[in-house]
Design goal:
Layout (H helix, E strand, L loop, with lengths): L1 E4 L4 E4 L8 E5 L9 H4 L2 H4 L5 H13 L4 E3 L1 H4 L5 H17 L2 E5 L13 H4 L8 H7 L4 E4 L5 E4 L4 H8 L3 H4 L9 H6 L3 H7 L10 H4 L17 H15 L20 E2 L15 E5 L12 E2 L3 E10 L8 E5 L2 E5 L7 E8 L8 E4 L5 E4 L2 E3 L2 H4 L16 E8 L10 E9 L5 E8 L4 E7 L2 E9 L15 E12 L7 E10 L14 E7 L1 H5 L4 H4 L7 E4 L2 E12 L2 E12 L11
Parallel strand pairs: 3-4, 3-5, 5-6, 19-28
Antiparallel strand pairs: 1-2, 1-4, 6-7, 8-15, 9-13, 10-11, 11-12, 11-18, 12-14, 14-15, 14-16, 16-17, 19-22, 20-23, 21-22, 23-24, 24-25, 26-27, 27-28
Organism: Pochonia chlamydosporia 170
Protein name: HET-domain-containing protein
Pfam family, one: DUF8212
C-alpha cells in the first residue's frame, strides 16, 4: 500500500503488517488531478489545479496528528492494470482500516448554502459511485466544505445523510467502543437494499458502476475494462449469488418504457438503477426459514439454475405463465408486517418445464399468503369477475433454469412413429395400411432387434417458425389396423392425423416460445377426402380411440434420432374406467 507522507509529499510503500496510522481522502475528481506520475515531477505538479487538494489534504491530516494520508489520484499507479485491480479490490478495506476519512465536498459552500439546501443535497459527492463505500467503510468520516472548513461528522448528521442516501442510520453510526463491525452489519442487510443505495449513483468509466460495489458486497474479482457496464454488473451479481442465498437480488424492476423492444429477460438486472422502484418498501432478508433456504445456485456463463417457489398464473390458457415467489421480505420502515416479492416467468420449452425466462420486467408484484398485489392494469387478470381475486395454487419448489439472454428455442428436427401399441398384456398388434407422402419408412437395428419406424423430416417437410404458426397445421396421416387378442378378432381401422399448433395467447401478450404437436383419430373416408375440419378444431378433435374395454391414447415425447431430437408419437392403452373426465392434451 502506498501512502503520502504529509510533511514531505513523498510516496512511501508499506507491507500489510507495517502500515502506520493514516487518514484517507474522499472526494470527487476534477480537472488536472495529481497522478502518481505527477508526484515524480514535483515542480510541474505544483502548477496543476489539483495540487491544492493534495496540499490541503496533507495539511488536514497533519492537524489531526496523522503523518500519512491515502489519496486515490496519486497513491495508485494506474498505468499498471495489475496494481489498479489490486487497489480496487482492496479499497474498501483501506477505507475501513483508516483512522478517519476526510470527505471534501468541492461544490458546497457552507457560508452560503445550508445543510437543508438543494445545493448540499445534490452535491456530486452524494451522486458518485465510488463515494458510497467511502461513506460507509471508515470508522469516522469528517465533512469539509469547498473552503476546507470542517462542518460535521457522519455520526452527527446521520439523520440527514440517511434521508439523502437511504443508508440505514445503524450503518452510519460510529460505535462507542471503536469497533464498528462494518462488514458484519453490511452482511445483515439484503442484497437488494444495498444495491438501492447505488441506484442513483454514476461513474465516469461505465464498468465502475459494478467495480465500485465490490467492497459493499465483500467480493473480489478481476477488472475487465472494455467489457461494458452490463457484463461487469452481471459478473458482480454472479459472484454475489455464489456467496449468499439471499433472493432479494432478483427483486428488481425497470420502468415500462422500451418494454416492447425486448420481451424476455434473465434473472439478473443490468445496473443498480433497477433496484430503485420499491415505493418506500425496503427489501430485507427473510426472517424465517423456508425450503429454499441455504440451497445452492448453479451459476454458468449461460444463466442460473436454481430452486424457486412457483405457481401457475390463474386463467392462463397457454399454461406457460408462472408467478415466482422470492425468499425475502418487503417492509416499510419501522413496520413489522411484510410482503413477499413476486416476479413473472414464462416457460420456453415444450419438452422441459424447467426452462423459463422472466417477462414484464416492469412488474415486481407483492404477495401476502395467497393474495398477489399487481398494478391496476394487471390486477384485473386475477379477478374472477365478481370483485374477488382468483385463488392461487399453493406454490411448489421447483428447479428452474433461466438464461441470461434468451434466444429462440429450436424445435425438434422431425416426428417419428413406431408402429406399436403399448399394452400391459402385449396382446394388441398394429399394422400400417397406408400413409401420406410426408412419412418416410425406415428399418433399423437397436440392441440386436429390428426396429420399424415412420418419420416426418422437418428438413424435407419445412415447418413454420413459432411466431408464424397461427392455425393448426396437418403434417401427415397414417391409416392403421388394430388387432386385439389371440383369436384375431375383426380388425379395427382408424387414421392418425398429426400436426403442429400454436399455444393460446397468454394474459401478458408475450409471444409463445414453442408450438405443440397434436394427434387426432379420424375416419379413413374423411382423410381420403382431405376433410380435416374436425381434427383441426381442438374442441372437436378426438384424442382417443375406443377398443372394447380399452381406450387407445396418443401421447408425445422426445427421442434421439441420428444425434438430433425429434418428436415421437406413442400409442398406449388405458382402461375405460380410468378415462372418466379425461381430456387429451399434448
Amino acid at each position: 500500500m502506498r501512502l503520502l507522507h504529509t510533511p514531505s509529499f513523498e510516496l512511501c510503500v508499506f507491507t500489510d503488517d507495517q502500515i502506520p496510522p493514516y487518514a484517507i481522502l474522499s472526494h470527487t475528481w476534477a480537472d488536472e488531478e495529481i497522478t502518481y506520475d505527477d508526484l515524480s515531477r514535483r515542480h510541474s505538479a505544483r502548477e496543476k489545479q489539483g495540487w491544492d487538494k493534495i496540499e490541503k489534504g496533507c495539511a488536514l491530516a497533519k492537524s489531526l496528528d496523522l503523518e500519512f494520508i491515502w489519496i486515490d489520484t496519486c497513491c495508485i499507479d494506474k498505468s499498471s492494470s495489475a496494481e489498479l485491480s489490486e487497489a480496487i479490490n482492496s479499497m474498501f478495506r483501506w477505507y475501513e482500516n483508516a483512522r478517519l476519512c476526510i470527505a471534501f465536498l468541492s461544490d458546497w459552500d457552507a457560508t452560503t448554502d445550508t445543510l437543508d439546501s438543494k445545493v448540499f443535497r445534490s452535491s456530486r459527492w452524494f451522486t458518485r459511485g465510488w463515494t458510497l463505500q467511502e461513506l460507509i467503510a471508515p470508522p469516522e468520516v469528517i465533512f469539509y466544505d469547498r473552503h476546507w472548513e470542517k462542518q460535521f461528522t457522519r455520526d452527527s448528521l446521520k439523520d440527514l445523510i440517511h434521508d439523502i442516501t437511504g443508508i440505514p442510520k445503524s450503518i452510519l453510526e460510529a460505535a462507542t467502543d471503536g469497533d464498528r463491525q462494518c462488514r458484519q452489519q453490511l452482511d445483515e442487510i439484503s442484497v437488494a437494499q444495498r444495491m438501492s443505495w447505488a441506484a442513483k449513483r454514476s461513474t465516469t468509466r461505465t464498468e465502475d458502476v459494478a467495480y465500485c460495489l465490490l467492497g459493499i458486497f465483500d467480493i473480489n474479482m478481476p477488472l475487465l475494462y472494455g467489457e461494458g457496464a452490463t457484463k461487469a454488473f452481471r459478473r458482480l451479481q454472479d459472484e454475489i449469488i455464489k456467496s449468499t442465498d439471499d433472493e432479494s437480488i432478483y427483486a428488481w424492476s425497470y420502468p415500462r418504457e422500451g418494454l416492447e423492444k425486448r420481451m424476455f429477460w434473465g434473472l439478473l438486472a443490468n445496473s443498480p438503477a433497477a433496484f430503485d422502484n420499491y415505493n418506500d418498501l425496503i427489501p430485507r432478508r427473510s426472517r424465517y426459514l423456508t425450503r429454499s433456504s441455504n440451497r445452492t445456485v448453479t451459476v454458468s456463463n449461460r444463466g442460473l439454475l436454481l430452486d424457486l417457489f412457483v405457481t401457475p398464473f390463474p386463467k392462463d390458457m397457454s399454461r406457460t405463465i408462472f408467478l415466482a415467489f422470492l425468499d425475502c421480505d418487503m417492509r416499510r420502515e419501522e413496520s413489522s408486517s411484510s410482503l413477499s416479492p413476486v416476479i413473472i416467468l414464462q416457460r420456453t420449452a415444450w419438452d422441459n418445464s424447467s426452462d423459463m425466462v422472466r417477462i414484464r420486467r416492469d412488474i415486481l408484484g407483492f404477495s401476502m399468503m395467497n393474495n398477489v398485489v399487481l398494478p391496476d392494469e394487471l390486477a384485473a387478470l386475477l379477478s374472477t369477475g365478481s370483485g374477488t381475486a382468483s385463488t392461487l395454487q399453493q406454490p411448489e419448489l421447483r428447479q428452474i433454469f433461466i438464461p441470461h439472454n434468451y434466444t429462440a428455442t429450436r424445435p425438434p428436427g422431425g416426428l417419428t412413429f413406431h408402429p406399436e401399441i403399448h399394452h400391459p398384456l402385449n396382446n394388441i398388434s398394429l399394422n400400417v395400411v397406408s400413409r401420406s407422402p410426408t412419412w418416410q419408412y425406415f428399418i433399423g437395428m437397436k440392441g440386436g432387434s429390428v426396429v420399424r419406424s415412420y418419420e416426418i423430416n422437418f428438413d424435407q417437410n419445412p415447418i413454420p417458425a413459432v411466431h408464424e404458426l397461427k392455425e393448426p397445421r396437418v403434417l401427415g396421416t397414417i391409416e392403421i389396423e388394430i388387432e386385439k387378442g389371440d383369436k384375431k378378432k375383426k380388425c379395427r381401422s382408424t387414421c392418425l392425423v398429426v400436426g403442429l399448433e400454436a399455444l393460446p395467447d397468454n394474459p401478458f401478450g408475450t409471444p409463445a416460445c414453442y408450438f405443440v404437436p397434436w394427434c387426432g383419430f379420424e375416419e379413413q373416408g374423411k382423410v381420403a377426402r382431405a376433410e380435416f375440419e374436425r381434427v383441426l378444431d381442438k374442441t372437436l378433435r378426438r384424442g382417443v380411440f375406443v377398443l372394447d374395454q380399452d381406450v387407445v391414447v396418443a401421447t408425445f415425447g422426445l427421442e434421439i434420432l441420428y444425434s438430433r431430437l425429434v418428436f415421437t408419437l406413442r400409442l398406449e392403452t388405458r382402461d375405460m374406467k380410468d378415462m372418466k373426465g379425461f381430456t387429451w392434451s399434448k
